[in-house]
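Let us work through a complete example step by step.
Step 1: write down the sequence.
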Amino acid sequence: MATPLSQRSLILLAGGESRRMGRNKAYLPLAGEPMAARILHRLKGVGKPLLAAGCRPFPSIPGIPVVQDHWPGCGPLAGIHAGLVYGNSELNLVVACDMPFVSRELAGFLLEKAEKIPGADALVPRAEGRIHPLFAVYRRRTFPFLEEILQENTDRSVTRFLERTDTIEVGEEEWHHLADPRLALLNMNRPGDYDQVRKRVEQEHTKNHPYPD
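Step 2: predict the structure and record it as tokens.
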């Protein structure tokens, strides 16, 4: 039996420093809306949404709870921890705020696969030779172990956490029929990345709406 929507959470990580981009990526406008709102719209219905905003204020999005990190300055691992604690859902889709072409189909596939493998702490997609831990499913039961790693003054990376837990990698051969790996897991780090994405979105809009509104 599928896990009810009320028992799934969508944790959007929006607390990064965005040093390479030079401004908060969650606010970047694309197709008339901030990046954070775009991602939430594209993943509507996947789970109960909440926004992990690090340790700084975040403009409210109607109906979306905003949570602060318990471990400020500790990167995305702290955001995942905050989301797991607040969301109170067994299954949690974690998504970075710089992924403009996230796929609802891929998200649903990962969550359904996680339901079938209750022993897995996390399910992480792999594409083009690397894993993507910031578009992945995490079980809430892992948050005490997250705390242990956050308390250690060493490597607090998400990758290290995954290496020390029961993580299943999901190769693109399992889901490429649902979403284009080059787009569904694309993330933007620099202004040039944003410019390319903006041009692509504008081209798609022109193609889909050839006549002026």
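Step 3: interpret the result. Helices lie at 35-42, 76-87, 104-116, 143-151, 158-163, 181-184, 191-208.
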